Amino acid sequence: VKLDLSRPLEQQGPLAAIVHKFCDILVRADHGDAECQRITAEFERFCRAHPGVVVVDPLENVRKVLNRFHQYRLVEQSPLASTEWVFIPPFVELSGTDPVADQAALRERGVHFPIVCKPLVSHGMKRAHQMCLVFGEHGLRDLQGACVAQQFVPHEGRLLKVYVLGQRYHLTWRPSLKDFVAGDLPTIFFNSQDVSKPHSSSPLNAHAVLEGIPMPCPRKLRFVVDTMRQQLGQRLFGIDIIAEKGTGRFCIIDVNNFPGYDGVSNFLDQLSGLLAELVGSELPDSGIDTSDSSDETPRRLNH
Fold first, then answer.
1. pTM
2. Binding residue per annotation — 254?
3. Is 156 marked as a binding-site residue?
4. pLDDT in tens, 170-187
5. Where are the domains of the chain?
6. Has 68 been labeled as part of a binding site?
7. How is domain 63-267+272-276 classified at the CATH fold level?
8. Cβ proximity of 158 and 103 under 8 Å
9. Residue 11: is it exposed, middle or buried by C-beta count within 10 angstroms (0-12/13-18/19+)?
10. Record-annotated residues binding Mg(2+) 1 (predicted)?
11. Is 126 labelled as part of a ligand binding site?
12. Does 50 count as an annotated binding residue?
């Protein structure tokens, strides 16, 4: 059942679980949209008043990934940092208005050119996907406002999308930026969705070979997924990983709440199964077998 956020949620129940994509509303609320602020406040009030309703995922946990700088810090400070085979590229927040100060910030954090500059906002706005590739100090004049500068890591134009659904995860390879080096080159502006969507064709991802690539070590991937699940407190999220050229080390470049799950077969069935597990874990065991006596549980799981 699709919920109407303009009406009190109590009037639309009973609800056993709520699955939402609240990122856009949260971002607009943070930017002063009064209606989105009202919707967010009402939703949070409902969750506090009805703690037995399973929410996938709690808003306070979704907020952890809405700002790229904060999500990178989360990864940097997680147990992943203690391994030798996974890392997050050096990064720093830049003003985008003061090239001299921005260059000093890059030096202080040890971030080397080329750099990928990404908007601080990671969800909910069109500009969240508008990025640029800066090849040297001269390119800092081209920045268009506050951003996160992430050191570019050569990775042969391949991006591993990790879609997490509860305890499970699914993998798919996507095209990515081809390898670049620092130099006296003009800044390249691009939309990340144009580069990394399935079957996308762009001069920036030319010659990427995605067929026949062996999947990474399952044990290592499981550690990454479990660690990020614990850090985020989310059940539906995605991790963008590249493999560093020459070393094969995992490099986490982005984390997303409730991604598109493109290419994941039977996604809705798997989501229904996850909700059944979560709702079942919230209900007390009466000791009575009601599997054939009522259709109430399946009906409520549609919420």
1. 0.89
2. yes
3. yes
4. 999 999 999 999 999 999
5. 9-56, 63-267+272-276
6. yes
7. D-amino Acid Aminotransferase; Chain A, domain 1 (3.30.470)
8. no
9. exposed
10. 240, 254
11. no
12. no
